């Protein structure tokens, strides 16, 4: 079997069991199905931040608000990237209008254009949620708001904000699962506010609903960036955020991780290394197809050497 054919068979999912492929230099993609805690289909992308040719780009600011929505696949193709994943929560939602505001800190190639904030969806998103920053030299770290500066676009860490993404909360902190809880009599310091359409509380947490999820994390040595998606479509039943955190810690050595926008936004797009065509690797759960989102993170990588 030729290398090209083997790559094509692996890419199309024709090899049985867990599929592990290394389509680009420094990029490992794992397509994985499990039956516990329920039937799920997952994708894990491991990125060696020290590999030659690796670089990143978040969606650039555009339009009268902060960004213009497009699908993660459109972003991948536009940027001629090799991997892309959806990232920020955004407003207005639901809306068919293309112009959007991102929730939380965002930077694209050094342009910091969205600030830390206290979001309206406080039943799901914590105030001033930490962000993950990757600087121009691929040094990645979790960053936190500097509250002494009023614009919300500065961090307490001594780093240069370059490509920064934030989500609903930090779900792994220094190797420990850290799922936020709701403020109530037993949890007066809870970071979430009970409410929302389903009246979320510690008895029914937004974080405990099995659904499609997207997460981004770092290993303790900060050398490996981990991108994660799980589907709630095509027979996959989704995961709770705590289940995602447990999996990342125990099986992929993730030391710090953020929960990004999920549900119908969850999308992993990759370039086929054989054909050069961009494809969506997961099965999005939006009933209208691949959802246009307000931001995605692109990964650029060199071609893998022939085996």
Query: Helical proportion?
Result: under 10%
Global outline: globular
Q: Output the strand order for the largest sheet.
A: 1-2-3-17-16-18-14-15
- Can you count the helices? 3
Structural class: mainly beta
% residues in beta strands: 25-35%
- What is the residue-mean pLDDT, rounded to a whole number? 94
The whole-angstrom Rg is 18 Å
SSE layout and pairing:
Layout: H1 3-11, E1 19-24, E2 27-34, E3 40-48, E4 55-58, E5 67-68, H2 72-79, E6 83-86, E7 90-91, E8 99-102, E9 106-108, E10 111-114, E11 131-134, E12 140-143, E13 163-166, E14 169-173, E15 176-177, E16 213-219, E17 224-230, H3 241-252, E18 254-260, E19 268-271, E20 278-280, E21 296-300
Antiparallel strand pairs: 1-2, 2-3, 3-17, 4-21, 5-8, 6-19, 6-21, 7-8, 9-10, 11-12, 11-13, 14-15, 14-18, 16-17, 16-18, 19-20
Overall description:
This protein is mainly beta and 307 residues long. It has one domain. Helix content is 9%, strand content 32%. It contains 3 helices and 21 strands. The strands form 5 sheets. An 8-stranded antiparallel beta sheet has the order 1-2-3-17-16-18-14-15, sandwiched between helices. Strands 4-21-6-19-20 form a 5-stranded antiparallel beta sheet, covered by helices on one side. The longest helix has 12 residues.
